[in-house]
Amino acid sequence: MVKGPERKSIIMAVGGGKGGVGKSFVMASLGMSLARQGRVVMIDGDLGGANLHNFLGISRPTSTLTDFFERKVPLADLVVDSGISNLGLLTGMVGTIGAETIKHAQKQKLFNQIRKLDADYILIDLGAGTHFNTIDTLLIADKMIIVITPEIVSIENMYNFLRNLYFRRLGGVLTDHGYRDLVVNTWHDRDALGISNFRELVDCLKAVSPEVRLIIEEELRDFAVNLVLNKARTNQDIVTGNSVKSICVKFFGVNALYSGYVEHDDLVSRSANHRTPYLSAYPNSRCSRGIERLTVNILSGQQVKVTR
Ligand SMILES: Nc1ncnc2c1ncn2[C@@H]1O[C@H](COP(=O)(O)OP(=O)(O)OP(=O)(O)O)[C@@H](O)[C@H]1O
Ligand SMILES: [Mg+2]
């Protein structure tokens, strides 16, 4: 169903993050939590390895995004009932199509139709990796979510993703204002310009002219990512989220919000294997309570308060 003019959806998307950090689990659970407040449509945009349905406790739907790309079926017609009240699912298709195969025009059409879906909340789960189609999809979201685990590989991976995300946004904004290639060229000359991190790149760009400064300040004022630390086992793990946030602000100049942490629970995998949605099977577990707090924080822009 396509929405009437009165309904304004909030789009949330998860991207980046190493494979296996829990993006799909976190998004599925967030979707279930939000479905208590309004109509949710979840989009499994992990085109190469869609598995969101497992966390919602259903088998793979037969209508998928492939029907949109290859048979031109309108997106709204592909949303299937998940069996969970107020929650519809639009799934990807394993193996046939990857983020890298989507053409520009298809992508724009997809984004237009996503924005018109009849829902209060539209949640998009994306695969790992930094392909620009993945990044562009994340950039259409009102709430960009990045999931990490308290492991160095996951955190380094996330910094790399964030760099790509911000770079693309900055490049896009300046190109739209007639400064094509300014970001790429400045970054290319970074050694000569004495730029050692992303924050310094932004400072250098702002010094190009008062107009460029204004564009960056106005267009990127609201640019913020929501960090979620998943599979936390100790208090030290939880505190790690704070350090990551500080580094994002210091070296990237990116407004990173530490939106929440979700504790590790072996029952998460077991529930997916048994096709039982974790959040409804274990609503009072510490992990589920983490998801509920996360939902509130993402909607309100609040952050985790942790002490060592
Ligand atoms: N909080 C958690 N506690 C325990 N296990 C978890 C938790 N979150 C996710 N998992 C498990 O980790 C594995 C990976 O989760 P998931 O598929 O959500 O990751 P992903 O980031 O979406 O991976 P991919 O990049 O491959 O799509 C799954 O087996 C899942 O059950
Ligand atoms: Mg996934």
Task: Explain briefly what this protein structure is.
Helix content is 46%, strand content 15%.
Give a verbal description of the structure.
Strand 7, helix 11 (235-252) and strand 8 form a beta-alpha-beta unit. The protein is built from 14 helices and eight strands. The chain starts with 9 loop residues before the first strand and ends in an 8-residue tail after the last helix. The chain has two domains: 10-153 and 224-300, Rossmann fold, CATH 3.40.50.300; 165-219, no CATH class. It is of the alpha/beta class. Bound molecules: adenosine-5'-triphosphate (ATP) and magnesium ion (MG). Residues 23-24, 46, 51, 125 line the site of magnesium ion (MG).
Q: Which small-molecule ligands are present, each listed once?
A: adenosine-5'-triphosphate, magnesium ion
Secondary-structure content class: alpha/beta
User: Could you say which overall geometry the principal axes of the C-alpha atoms support?
Assistant: globular
CATH topology descriptor of the largest domain: Rossmann fold
What's the domain count? 2
Radius of gyration: 19 Å
Number of helices: 14
CATH superfamily of the largest domain: P-loop containing nucleotide triphosphate hydrolases
What portion of the residues fall into strands of 2 or more residues?
A: 5-15%
Q: What's the CATH first level of the largest domain?
A: Alpha Beta
Distance between the termini: 48 Å
The helix content is: 40-55%
Secondary structure: number of strands = 8
Low-confidence stretches: none
Helices and strands, in N-to-C order?
EHEHHEEHEHEHHHHHEHEHHH
**Physical arrangement of strands within the biggest beta sheet:** 3-4-2-5-1-6-7-8
**In this structure, how is the largest beta sheet organized?**
8 strands, mixed
